[in-house]
Structure formats: structure tokens, C-alpha cells
What we know:
By secondary structure, the protein is mostly helical. The chain folds into two domains: about 10-205 and about 260-435 and about 475-525, Up-down Bundle (Growth Hormone, Chain: A), CATH 1.20.1250.20; about 205-260. It has 21 helices and two strands. A two-stranded antiparallel ribbon has the order 1-2. Helix 9 (about 210-225) runs antiparallel to helix 10, helix 9 (about 210-225) packs parallel to helix 17 (about 400-440) and helix 12 packs parallel to helix 15.
Amino acid sequence: MESAAGGAGRGSSPARAGLVLATLIGVAAVANVNLSVANVALPDIGKHFDAGQTMVDLIAVGYSLGLAASVLYLGAVGDRYGRKTLLVLGMTLTIPAAILAAFAPSAPILFLARVFGGVAAGMAYPTTLALITALWPPGPERTRSIALWSAIGGGISALGPLLAGALLEGFDWSSVFIITAPFAAIALFFAWRFVPAHVNETTEPVDHLGGILSIALVGTLILAINLAPEPGKGTTAVILAIIAVAALGAFVLRQRRAANPLYDLKIAARPTFWVAALAGIIVFGSLMGAMFIGQQFVQNVLGYSTLDAGLAILPGALGMVVVAPQSAKLVEARGSRFTLLVGFASCLLAFLVMFVFWEEGASYLPVGVGFLLMGVGVGFAGTPASRSLTGSVPVTRAGMASGTADLQRDLGGAIMQSIFGALLTAGYAKSFTEQIAASPHAASVSEKVTNELTKSFSSAANTAAQYPEYAEAIAAAARKSFLDGGDWTYAAGMIAVAVGISVVFFLFPRHKAEIALLERFHAEDG
């Protein structure tokens, strides 16, 4: 069953459509800023807490972890109990989460605060796209709305480091988290005031067990990836991976047997759905992974200030915002498959530039070009990835589609950041260990000092301050180690994008077939 309210029929846009869309984009913007705002502060956070690279990685990925683990379940809860209610509650809880992160007394507490903030965003973020799907009828207007939602959201995510960099020029690392609170308060007011309630929502019961299993699956998977390269954490990582596999099996079994599944596997099996979902995970994960590594590269290796590091990423945001309207037109003219392939090609070139030209002493040109190509790629691929998902499901399953669309960003970002972080950690430690062994002073370097030097770049910087006579040699070795680890991440990025290109090229339907499939799905769904 469905209910409709708020002046939105299935054949027309909602009343005050521009204001409603701006509000939904604003709510999404709060979540998008939080996805990336910590990246530019990671070197300062690492130094402040003397944290190892794994803990730095967890702080960076904590928000994505909370968001990715909760979006499917909370998207379904919104479909049943009220999308506007979840929207308002999510923005409300974002405020204390931001305050807790800003005043965290330790790195583990900061990580937990980031996860809490991600769960709060999981309440609000999936409902933004679900409401666009519910309020705007299928056609060019919905495609343009999704394009704006995708581009501005991605652009704001890319602008997060600029905001953080500007704040860090005059304040400490806590400022990048506390700044979210006033933005969330503004978004909360507009969401409460202008967003329609109870639009095309379902009366079917929510699969709460499936929701718990989905949280366990995503949470344990991300933690296992992050802990894998940490010395002494191998057993824990294996146990978490086993739990993730068991949760996956239980989740699939539950969804096949549940009368009202959280995640309808029959709908998910549609090629316009699952291929688009996988493509989005890879392309948005590439963006988040590139920003995660890139922000540390320009500060640790090139010596950029926090403000310059934030400015460095502007071409990426510009590429996304400029390309998104063209992406919407290209989807209508050439189809989602072609547009996705264009986006993937640009992402592949971005990683190639990073692998070849991001080195010590590099000028800004290859840095800017790398970010620009990544932004253009996401700008082209983001719209068809999200549009295909929402167009492949009935409106009562909008939460499933929007949850999957959000999962593209969040799970993609969490997985790629985790993989990149694990590779960076392993590559950095391996390179520094080899440099210590080859040093003429190797015999005089104690095990304790070796552990500090190989733990993370920030830990090496703190160690260098304790041994001023070796400070320059330590700094040079740390930069080389970071570059070696970074090359591992760019190579992994190219492999992931190549897989995405292959899947889309061979398995996503061409334009005419896509249109026919979507029309058939729409007729079947009634």
C-alpha cells in the first residue's frame, strides 16, 4: 500500500519543488562534508594522539563505516515509519556527534564519535534520494534532480578539505568537526519546515533481523580490512572476516525467506540495478580513496599547508559540478552504459596520473590534473549509477534504491579507503623497514624506535623531533616510504576501475535495451 501527501502526485513535481530540492541537497551536504572533512586534518590528528597509521585510517573511515553499515536498514525504516521523521532525527543527532568528535580525549573515542556521526547520517542521507524518487515522477525532471543531488553532493564532499584547511590555519584539529553542528542545525530547520511528510511510503513491516545482519556484515568487513596490516591484529582481522562471511550468508538466506525482505534480491538481480550498484561503489570509492591518500600526500610529501591542501582538491569539485548537467543529458541521449564508461575512463586516467607523476618535488600541475580527472569521472558516472537504481524499483522500494545509492558512496568509500589505508600502511612499513636495514646506522636503531618509525608518517615525524641530528634523514625516509605505499594504492585503484569497466561494458544493457527493461520493470511493479 502507498500513501501520498505533500502535494506530489506521481505525474507532477512537488509544490515549491526548487525549495524542497535545495533542502534535500542541503541535508545531503552535511553528510557529504563529514565524509571528507577529516582527511586534511589527519596529519594533525595523528601527531596529536601519536596514532599509528591503522588508527589514523580508522578515524578517516569511521564516518563512512557508520553510514555504510546503517543506510540499508535505516532506508527501509524511513520507507515504513516516515522519511521526514528519519531526516529530522538524523540531523538532530548529528549535532552531539560533532561535539563529541571535536572534544574526543583519545583516538579511539574520536573513532567512535565518527561512527556515531555516520549512523546519524544514515538516518538522514538515504531519505534525501528516496524523497526525490517519491516526489518527482520518472522522466527528465527526476534525472536532473538526481544529477544536481549527485553533483552538488560530490562537489561539497570535495570542498570539505578546503573548509577544513581554512579552519586549521587558525584553529586546531577539533574545529573541522565542530563546524558541522551549525550546518546541521540549519539543515534541520529547513527539513522540518519545508520537506513534505508521508509521501508514497509503504505499510509493509520492516525486516529488522535483516537490518541487524546488514549492519554486522558491513561493520565487520570494514574493520577486518583495516586491521589486517596491523602487527598483532591478524587473528582479530581473520575472526572479523569470518563473521562478515557468516553474516553475508545469513543475510542472503534471510532475504530469500522473509515475507517482506529488507533487500529484495529479485529486484537487486535486475542488471540495471546490480551493475549500476557495483559501478557506483567503484567510482565513488575511487573518489574517496583518492581524496584520502591525496590529502596526506600533498601535506606529508609536498609540504603543503592545510589551506593549500584544501585548495589543491578544488579541480575535483569543479569537474563534478560542471560535468553533472552534461551527464544528465548524455544519459538521456546515449544511455547509462555509455555515460558510465566515459566516467570510468576518466577515473582510470586519474589513477594513472597519480601513479606516474605524484612524486617528491612534483609541481601542482599533476596534482590538479589528477583531482580534475577524478572529479570529471565521478561527475559523469554518478548520475547514471544513481538513476539506474531508482528507475529499477517500485516507488515503495525507494528506500532500498536510495539506500543502495548511498551505499555506493559510503560502502565504496569505506572499502576503498580501507584498502588504500591497508596498502599504504603495509607499503610504508615495508619500505621504511628496508631503508633502516640498508642504513649504515642500522645496528644502533632500537626495536622501539623502529616500531615508531614504521608505525606511521606522523609517528616518524614525532620521532624525528626527538633525534634532531637525524631529523632530515628520518623525514626523507618517511617521504619515500609514503610514496612507495602510495604507489600500491594507485595500482589498486587502476585494477578496481578496470574491473568496473569490464562489468559495465559486458553486462549493462545498451541504451535501447535499457529503456525497454526499465519500462518492463515499471509495468511489472504496477
